Each structure stands twice: as C-alpha cells, then as structure tokens.
Amino acid sequence: MENKQQLLIIVGSVREGRFGPVVAAWVAEQARQHGGFEVSVLDLAGIDIPLELPAASPKYAGDAYPRPAGMAPLTSALAEADAFVVVTPEYNHSYPASLKAAIDWHFTQWTAKPVAFVSYGGAAGGRHAVLHLENVLTELHAVTIRDGLAFPNYFTAWQDGRPLDRTAPAYAKTVLDQLAWWSRALSAARAAGPYPA
Questions:
Q1: 3-state DSSP call for residue 19?
Q2: Whole domain around residue 66: which residue ranges?
Q3: What pLDDT does residue 2 have?
Q4: Which of 45, 46, 147, 175 has the largest count of CB atoms under 10 Å?
Q5: Which pLDDT band, with edges at 50, 70 and 90, does 6 fall under?
Q6: CB of 129 within 8 A of CB of 88?
Q7: How many domains are contained in the chain?
Q8: Which DSSP symbol is given to 105?
Q9: 153 to each of 73, 150, 167, how far by Cα in Å?
C-alpha cells in the first residue's frame, strides 16, 4: 500500500475563547476517515512565537535561521509535513497575527507543499482571511488548494463539536481528495529534485 502523506492541521488563532480547536478536531476526524494521511494537529497557542523577527530573512538563512528554542516543535512539524490544513478565523477581514508570525518565521518548510484552508467567522465564513493567506503562502512557493471549507456564522452553525450542515463531510472529502493528490504529486517532485525557489 502507498505510504500515507504527513498532514499537519494548524490551529491559527490563539485568542481567548477561540473556536479553532473545535473546528480542527472535526477536520482531523474527517482527515483520518479519509485514509490518505497520517494526521497531526498543532495548536499555535502552545508555541512561543515572537512578533519581532531577526533582520535576516529565513529565505536566505535556511536552516541557520535563529529561531527561539520554544519554536522548535513548530519548525519541526512544518518541515516534516507533506501537506497542511490551516484552520483560521477572520479578524477584521483578515487572519490572526499569530498565524502571520508563525508563517513569517519560516520559508523552506512551506516550499512546494500544498495548503488547504478551513475558515470560520461571521457572514463571510472567514473567506477574507483565506484570500489574504493565499497571497502570503503563494509568495513562499506553497501551492494553495482551490477548494476549501468555510463556516459562516459558526456560533449558530455548530452543535456538539460538529457542523449542522449535513453536506460538510462531503465538502471536506473533496478538499482532502485534492490535498492528497497535490501532496503525492509534490512529494514525488521534491524527491526527484530540488525546487528552484
């Protein structure tokens, strides 16, 4: 049987009372049922992520980039992953500063890997946050997946840790199918030769 791809689900919000862990747990359940991935969940609330960055860019410093010791679990998890699902809320029509800081402390860990998005928020369901994230991660040579999951008005659309929309699992499978395809393709490409970033 083909080796499973390593999927990292990232909880992007660290705000008190956040809903992200609930969404991430449901996404992880869907991903495990999908069967194409070894699934890990990383919560940024448990990582030391300073907002102040060194003068040198991780793009040029590579593995010598001076990250705080408390960031080691994040750096390691990003490096080992073949694919990502970013779970993000929408704050003021964009995504959380914690997520931007986590992204900006890294470079090669994102390169030539696929990223899918699961968002939640008010009427827009977090889509503004995703549009901004697509731009940022494309700059880091990640491949963003076209389809995603968005949960508008999540505060009334979920019950007992699950979305009330019965079509959500089918949409999740579509996203995970696309993510698995890109993950296998890009893993093979990375193994065949270095990406010209």
A1: coil
A2: 5-192
A3: 63
A4: 175
A5: very high
A6: yes
A7: 1
A8: T
A9: 32, 10, 16
107: left (phi over 0), alpha (psi -120 to 50) or beta: alpha
Which candidate, 2, 23, 1, places its Cα nearest to that of 11?
A: 23
The answer as to whether 34 is a domain residue is: yes
Angle at 89 between CA 83 and CA 42, to 5 degrees: 40
Any idea how long the chain is?
197
Please name which of 110, 112, 107 lies closest in space to residue 59, comparing C-alpha atoms. 107
Contact 7, 38 (CB under 8 A): yes
Confidence of residue 193 (pLDDT cuts 50, 70, 90): very high
Predicted model pTM: 0.96
Q: Is residue 26 part of a domain?
A: yes
SS3 call for 86: strand
What percent of the chain shows pLDDT beyond 90?
90
Measured distance CA(197)–CA(190) in Å, rounded: 12
pLDDT at 1: 41
Nearest one of 85, 76, 91, 78 to 116, comparing CA atoms: 85
Which residue carries 């705080």 as its tokens? 68
CA–chain centroid gap for 174, Å, is: 16
Q: What is the CATH number of the domain that holds 99?
A: 3.40.50.360
Per DSSP bridges, beta strands 114-120 and 149-151 are: parallel
